[in-house]
Amino acid sequence: MPDKLTAMIFDIQSYSVHDGPGCRTNVFFVGCPLQCRWCANPESWKMKKHLMFSERSCKWDQGCTACRDACPNDSLHFDENGKPVLNWAICNECETIECVKSCAANSLKQCVRFLTVDDLVKILKRDFSNWGSDGGVTFTGGEPLLQHEYLYEVLRKCHALQMHTAIETSGYAAEDVFLKIFSELDFAFIDVKNMDDELHRWGTGVSNQQILSNIAALVHSGWRGRLVLRQPTIHGYNDSTENAKRVIDFMNQLGLYEINLLRFHRMGGTKWEQLGKTYEYADHGDMSDERMLELQELYLDNDIACYIGDDTPF
Questions:
Q1: Residue 51 and residue 98: Cα distance in Å, rounded?
Q2: How far, in Å, CA of 55 to CA of 60, rounded?
Q3: Which tens digit of pLDDT belongs to each residue from 260-313?
Q4: What are the pLDDT digits (tens) for 193-202?
Q5: Distance between CA 15 and CA 23 in Å, rounded?
Q6: Contact 229, 223 (CB under 8 A)
Q7: Most buried by CB count within 10 Å: which residue of 35, 181, 245, 267?
Q8: 1 pLDDT higher than 50
Q9: Which pairing describes strands 24-29 and 305-308: parallel, antiparallel, or unpaired?
Q10: CA distances from 257 to 179, 234, 311 (A)
Q11: Which candidate, 262, 258, 269, places its Cα nearest to that of 225?
C-alpha cells in the first residue's frame, strides 16, 4: 500500500524562501546518480544510513571520551592529544552506526531518517499554516527522482490538500519516471551543469544526454508548470561564453526563457570533511561579480530572463 512506502530523508527545512514561491518547506532526499565534484550536499550520495563526524562540535578538548568503546568494529580511536580519529574505510561500510548514541554533542551523527508517506505528509500539514498563500513544499536532495514511487504518492497527497509543489532536480531519470513525477508538480528548477557531454561526465560522473532529452520531453508534453533552468556556475568548468551560447541555443529551440545562475560557493566544504572525503574545490572555482554580470547580459541579450543567485522572482 502507498502509505507503507518509506523514504530516506537527510533533512527537512522549514521557512525557506529561495527554492520556490513564498515560504516553503524543503525536503532533502537521500541518493543521487550524480557525484558532482563541487557538491554542497555530499551526505546525500549514498542510499543507506551513513556517518558524519564534526570535529568542530566534538568535546574531546574538554576531556570527553564517551565514544571510546562505542564502536563494535574498532574503527574509532584517540590520538596522542585525545582527539577521536575514525577509520573511514570501516565507517563508510557500517550498517548500524552505534557510535552516534554515545555522543551528546551530536558530533557523531547519522545522516538518514526513514519516513513513511504519512509521516512526511504529517510534517507538511504541520507547516502548512506557515507558508502563506504562495508557499508550499520543495523536494530536493540529493536527487528526489531516485525515490520516485514514494515521491509520487507524497505529491498526490499534497495536491489533494491544495499544497503547491516544487522540485529541484538534476533531471537524470528515465523519461517515463520524469514525466510521471512532473505531472504532479507546479514548479521546477532543473540543473543544466554543462552542455558539453564529456565535461558533464567529468564534473558529475554521468552524461547530460538523458537530462537534456527529459527537458525537451517535458516541454513537448505540454506541462503547464513553471520551469526555471539552473546552473551552478563554476569558474573554469562551465562559465565560458561558449557554454552559455550552447545553453541559449538549447533554450531557444524549446521556447524556454528563464535561467538562474547560482554563484559557486563552499558552504558544503565542511560536509566533505565530516564524511572523510577530500574536497576538490577547496581552493578554486570562485566566480567574480564581473563575470556573473557578463553571463547575465549574454542571456538577456538573447531574450532570456537570467537571475543571479537568490534573485529569482517568484
A1: 10
A2: 9
A3: 999 999 999 999 999 999 999 999 999 999 999 999 999 999 999 999 999 999
A4: 999 999 999 9
A5: 5
A6: no
A7: 181
A8: no
A9: unpaired
A10: 20, 22, 16
A11: 258
Given a contact cutoff of 8 angstroms between Cβ atoms, the answer to whether 262 and 230 are in contact is yes
Q: Residue 203: is the preceding peptide bond cis (ω within 30°)?
A: no
20-60 pLDDT per residue, tens: 999 999 999 999 999 999 999 999 999 998 999 999 999 99
Cβ partners under 8 Å of residue 6, min gap 6: 114, 115, 116, 150
DSSP letters along 39-82, please? -S-GGGS-SS--EEE-TTT--GGGT--TTTT--TTS-EEE-TTS
| DSSP code per residue over 122-151 | HHHHHHHHHH-SS-EEEEEES-GGGGHHHH
Instruction: List all residues 6 or more positions away from 209 whose beta carbon is below 8 Å from its beta carbon.
Output: 197
The Cα 238–Cα 251 span in angstroms is 16
DSSP letters, 148-187, are HHHHHHHHHHHHHTT-EEEEEE---S-HHHHHHHHTT-SE
Whole-Å CA distances, 92 to 52, 99, 222, 263: 9, 13, 44, 31
* Nearest Cα residue to 5 out of 167, 161, 154: 154
